[in-house]
Amino acid sequence: xxxxxxxxxxxxxxxxxxxxxxxxxxxxxxxxxxxxxxxxxxxxxxxxxxxxxxxxxxx
Length: 59
Known about the structure:
Layout: H1 2-7, E1 11-17, H2 27-43, E2 46-53
Parallel strand pairs: 1-2
């Protein structure tokens, strides 16, 4: 978690878009979220939220 060391964060909010326009979590979104949760937990950083932006909605 190099970002954590750079900004001295204790918590983060994840935000990304789905170019398909469908904000429903994809397998890839779920997989990377699990990896980030594990990495953040090891670094002592909380993830407060994970927002996925679609064409006309968010999840």
